Amino acid sequence: MSNFKCTMWQHPYVNVFKHLNVGEWKKSAKEGEVMTVMDKQLKCTVYRITGSIPAGNYIQLPKTSTQSLGLTGRYFYLMFKPLPGKYFVVHLDVATQDGLIVRISFSNLFKEFKSTSTWLQFPYVCNPSKGSVEGYTVLTTRQDHQGPAPQVVRWTLLMLDFQYILSMYLNRKYSYLKNVRLCANIMVKNVFTSDMQYEPGLSLKTAKRTGMLSEGVSPVPREMAFPVPKHHDWYDFYDHIRFPSDATKVPFDSIQIGRATSPTLSRSPLGTMAAQRVSPTQVNVSRAVSDRVSLINKLTSPKKPRRKTKVTKDLPEVNVIADGPTVVKGGEGEVHVFAHPEDDVTVHRHHNETGLVHTTKVTGNTAIPRHERDYKTLKPDPILSLRRIIGFGGSTSREALWSHNGTTVVYPCHAVIVAMNAFNGHQRFFLGHTDKVSAIAFNGSTSLLASAQTGKLSVVRVWKFDTGECLAMFKTHVHSVYCLSFSHSGGVLCGVGKDSHNKNMVVVWNTTRVNRSGEVSVMAKAHTDVDIVRMKIASFDDTRMVSCGHDNVRLWRVRNGSLRSAPVNLGEYHTADFTDICFDAAYQPTGNPVDRTIYACTKSGHIFEIDYSRVSIVHVRRLLPIDKNKKEKDTFHAGVGIAINCMSVNQSFCVTGSEDGYLRLWPLDFSNVFLEAEHEGPVTAVDITIDGLQILAGTQTGNIGVLDISTRQYTTVMRSHTDSIASVSVDPLRRHVATVSMDHTIRIWDLDNLQQLFDFSAPRECPCALTYHPSLQVFACGFDNGCVRVFNVATTSLLAEHRQHRAKVTGLMYSPNGNYLYSCGALGSIALYDAESGYQLIRLLGNTVAKGENYGPDAIAVSDDGHHIAFVGPTEFTVSIVDARSLDEVVRVDITSMNSEMDSKVLDRAVKVWYAPKKTRQLLVVTASSRLLKLDATTGRLLSEVSNIHRAGCTSIDVSPDGKHLATAGDKVVKIWDYHMRLDLNFQVFIGHSENVQKLCFTPDSLSLISIGEAMFVWDFYGTGREQEPIMEGRTTGQNYITGIEDDARQSFFKSPKRHSLEMSNLSPRGHIPQPAEPVIINGVDETNGSVQDESQEDVAVLIGPELDDKDEGDLLASETDDVDGEPAETLGTSSRVKQHRQLRSPEKVLAPADERASGKDGSNHKPYVMKHFKQRVKQSQMAQRRYTASPSQAGLKLKSVIGYNGNGRNNVVWHPDSGLFAYSSGCVIIIEDLHAGTQKHLLGHIEEISTMALQHDAQVLASASGAHGLTASQICLWDVAAGICKKVLSYHEYDMVCLAYSRDDRFLVSVGDYRECSIVVWNTNDYSVIAASKTALPVHELRWDPYSPNEFVSVGARGTVLFWLLDETHQQCSLNVHEADVPEELMDTNVKALSDTEFTSVAYGGDNVLYVGSNTGVLSAWDTRHNTCFMHWDADSAEITSICCKFGSSHLITGSASRNLRLWSVYGISEMRLNPSNMFNSTPGKGLVMEDEMTLDGGITGAGFDDTMDMGIVGTTAGTLWYINWIERTSIRLVSSHMNMVNDIVFNDSEQYFASCADDGSLKVWSMNDMEQKLQFQVADQACTCLAFSPDGTATSDRPAEVSQSTDLDVASTSPQKVAAGYSDGTVRVFDLKKVDMILKMHSHSVAVTNLAFSPDGAVILSGSSDGLIAVSSPTTGMTIRVISDHKGAPITDMHVTSKHEMSDSGLPATTLWLAASADRRVSVWVADWSKDSCELMDWLTFPAPAFTPDGTAIRKGDISSYRLLPPSLARFSPSEPDIIVYAGYGMQKQIQFYSLSQRKVVRTAALTHWATDLSISPSGHVIATGASERLVKLIDYYEGSFQDFTGHNDSVHLVAFSPSGRFLLTAGFNEIIIWELAV
Fold first, then answer.
1. Is the pTM value of this prediction over 0.70?
2. 229: pLDDT confidence band, cut at 50, 70 and 90?
3. DSSP 3-state helix, strand, coil percentages of the chain (rounded to 5)?
4. How far apart (Å, rounded) are the C-alpha atoms in residues 580 and 587?
């Protein structure tokens, strides 16, 4: 509603000059020669802007560039005329919907279109007047008049479509126009903005008659009209230019006049280019080269005049229905209020994506019309997200910083800033710079990050580090900024760069308002000839700085707007070359500058200690190596000392990084070296964490490492190339990536965690081309000297070397089956090698491929079937297709005959070729003019053409394996296209690269895209249909690492490969090849080995593990064709005795249509719709990174009890009948409960929601799992049950875990990842190491170990998958073998329309080798585990079977389902049915399948555990209830109850005997404090219960603490009748009588939700507050509303408190009732009341100030009630210990609790908080305060001193805290979890 009001005044248009009153220059500005003149033609006053320098003569709208016009009109109209013979420039700054400011400039000074991510420059082509000399010249020469304006020009109406410009050129959405600058030399009449398309020369009558009004085209308004004489045409006097236009003249992307057509004739829609269909050109493949030469002569010879053929501009519409606008109800939930409802209102609205304007007349109270979307774009949007960058540096390698939490490393990688978690590899990115980042800097708290880019367009950006939002971007007035420094407070930023005379320039900016408004202003600046290398702002004073450089150290200070400096007297060291400088210690705001010391280091190894106050040197030390006899490494600079590049100092030690590659740790007296770490290259960056335990080091060789001081272990977290990467290739089988670079190295990376595995060096030759063998661990590499070498990585040997090429290798490819290798060189030669017979040369042809190095590194393309290869050649004008086995030419295609513009005098040439997937049968050709040609791969016929795919040429191309998407690179961007080009906008653009992208390639699984250039970018690709992950701090990598007690946990993630030489005399990479981080995908074996699978084949054995590597392709093919009699030893196999069912091939073997599959062949899976699969509850909160916890002996709170069971978990309840162990989970806590004593023991260690648990068979160790969320990694905790401590924490999975299971002998533990990961991991329980891991193609729902075999288990999952696994321990390394069982077709049939696929959801082993499998259709099947076959099935339920229980020796089976049914089955004798299936329905007494009993519970079954006799057990449900089940007695007893939804309120009764809670599901539960069990429940359907209040209890007084009753039943007979009032979301208040267990009163006091309730002390009235700010006073006896208090109207009531006694010395009102109310707008009202006299008067009104923005920096719009939800609540309480004090907590200038005195009427003291309070409660004794926090903390605060302790235990934001009346207990709630704490202070 507010947005509608803000923009309605701009309709239908805005006269900008009139709006800003330009003539008075108060809201606008002019500079230079700007004057008003009278124009004779227009007969009005216009503005003439002249001057030799356009930048110095202009009109600025509005007055300053920091202000904003805020004009939202899509179209911009400019009425102007260029001055003859002059140049002019116009700048327009527009804002996008994501907050980016983009400058759009057009000028006749520009020769061609140029663009960056923040600037678009369009050339303007002036149109000479008709009849002039220039006009005649244009007509005769057909050349546009570029350059200065012609001598005769006309007034022009220019229209720019901002929506189209930003969408087309930057892939962004337009928001509003910020400012306008009109520079010389032009004459301007006016500027307008509008959402309407105005057409000059069009009358209203004509517009109505032609229907143009309905299309949004209207006549020009009077204010915008040029005068036209009667009976004349408008176009005879003026020009009308639309951009984008339908002009097709060069230069393209220029602003020029289009075809002169009448507005009433057929015309192209605005915002579209001319629609011209080009017919495909027939290619004569047998044409000789001489024919092409004759064609060239024909094109270049003079042409005869020929008749122009008509070109159809309007293409016929197919299947498009053009309906007029219809009035529909608004679907956005908006409310429109009209002052006069009876009047008609005309509304102009534009479509959110297309921008088409619709004019609708709304009659009466009809809602605003809404138009359906008809604009098709590429989906999903975005289709790529950047996951990882391998690279460091670019412009500089001196910048690497720690974040404040000591876990995140921030560093630049060319044009991207990377924030990487140093311990798990997460990366997130700061994108926006258009050139290499040259400097970065943090403020003291690392909440703000500043960055600068080098180059002429040097800009500085300030980022909000936590969110990655760019707060400000500003030009620096200098170029090549190379140094930045932030003050500790973040209020001052200092930068050093070069001015226009290449002198050093220091600029100081004021950044205090950057968080609020993004405003940055210059405080001071200075020009200097002094060399500056480093500059730092002092932590104790934002106005003081220090700098160092060659032969100088200077102190700087900002004073009175000027920047002054003073040099330090260096004496004899005046020639020292300083490299770094820093202050002595950490942040000390009260420190005296007199006591400050400055440290500086030099290239000669000197350390200077400088006294800041005296500006003099105190000590000079020269650092030498420890071993004086040790020969010093050669450095880049002479001298016997250690050349020091960088340093960092804290309060205890100093760290230096030197040129010799050593990182050294020194004491502050530099007496000796504490630690020393050697690197491969010079150390250029160092930084120390806040706690001083971790040291960060960056090197010139592109490495980043972390030194742990406590353990003295060094970890390399990033390795990278030091020069441009030339080529990349992927090993599809082992998920390795190989790269070659101009730094003369070949490196191999792990695709999953992107850690470097191998590094080969070739110092004498440079590798330039690379390709991996499709199945073997072999790669071929080409070099710049023409050499081709083939390496075997597994055996570290050289397989072959060829030197047939005499120049750089430009192309290198394997055939798809790996039998052949192809190479080509820059001199035109191509070679064919036999890869099966030792890479012998088969054929070598010269002058076949086009000559030139620009065709590399992928000059050769091989078809998917391996029959043909294609390349550009023998000339650049032809593309040749040759036979892949003989290199015989098959087809030659002439590109010049496919020129779309036959009148062009420039011949197009081919630059890239690429084969699309086989099913498309197409060959792609990219030409020099950025055209993409799709050719028939067999005949070479042109099928289609796409023009201008990139502005400056395409550098690489690749097609996704499914053939649906096309990736291209060029202009330093990556584009993803719809391959078939069927959309309105067929591509998406992605930035990040600062140099040209050399190569693109999709990974074989289509989940990632790799782009290389200055670095390697790995993108997540979402075009396969998989879900996009939420933006968190990077992406969890798929590594194997354990976080536990051992300190080598981090080392397992980071590998440290060593460098090897590629010289032939010493060709030896590492001696062994490490195992892949992720095993082979199950369904990918046949595909990766190049074999073709026969669809008729029904039984295929899949191998996983070392056996697969040992078998070659021939063995695999043989094993597939052999009979099953000779079963391989590696498989579990099948038997000939298996009964033959009608078999259904597994989904991996027969692919269903795309719309019928739940997952694709690439392995991407959708979220399962089955209940069994665990899906973590969505949470917005994160655990606080900093917590202040006390030791257990000093803790103020002790965890007493946890109420509730997590019904969202799966198998998260365990019961061991022999030992009596009973454990279950609630949130992140495990509760071990003694059912006899009723006591609880709690296991705390998880951070996120526990998904599943498993108990060892000896009941000694309990395993529990929780998934990853935000910065928290997944965890598997191993608990010692007896001691109640965590023995080990394991971390492997990337997301959630759905299942845990122990083997029969407890030697192994299996964990199963969820649908996003599909991983199965086997852990050794001796040392908890990973011994085997595998990935499945489809999600697994449950897994069970075979109770009769210690090495076998079974898993069931999506799309009817049953996998039998064998853990093979016969080899040195354990491996997993798997057999996929064939499923009978009857099981896969589903009669439920809502289910698209049958999924197996549960599994359990029975006796006598029988396995039971349940499905989501309710069918239960029995399997023979000896043959892995199904022999029977039956309908066990009508819904999904979620749990199966069966014990050895028992003849019973228990099933639980999602339909809440628990059923007991007799399965006696069912195993005998395997021999004779006809006995399935026999009548043998005592045998067969019989359902003996059934129980219906309160929710779907989540887990169950029964004893060996299956007579009794414990069952969990989705309703959060745990039931005790006894089949013999047919009883079900509720053991644990809980809320299903968010708990909204908790209150105690006065006697502390009970407490009540309410939740969003409408439930009100009453609990006993004695046994913590639920006693009563009231349920209101379809309403949320929002608040509660107990009526006063006459037996309890505030003077005597009440004792807890020992009764176990709800007994209120001994007291006065107890009542509880509840408020609901429909505005009603209901009163329940606990004795009668019934509702006795219902009051409808409010029209909106009730937020707070309170009884008066005597129970006479009920006070209720609502979300609209009204407070109602009602009678609980009559139900009538006595009065309504509206003082807080407009802001929700957030808190209410009533006190029965309040004595004030000066109030004159002794023993009166006081109550207060607090609202979300931070206002508190205090009232004095005597309800017996119907008296209620306002006593005090408190208002607490707060910023005009939310805690995350979002501006709060005045009157926007929705913004209150983003703020912490306002909380107020009367102090029980100080009657005069009101305790307040809420949003304000600082996080604090304020103590307000009613007598003094002011805040008398405050207590600081570390987090915003979400709820507040004061102990009745008044000595402690409890608050909750969104960071999942419970905070206990000393009332008088303000000291506090933090307590964890909740899994979500703690939004409720409540002390009991006695003060002994504290209740807290986080979502649906209730925790009871016992106060210990």
1. no
2. confident
3. 5, 40, 50
4. 19
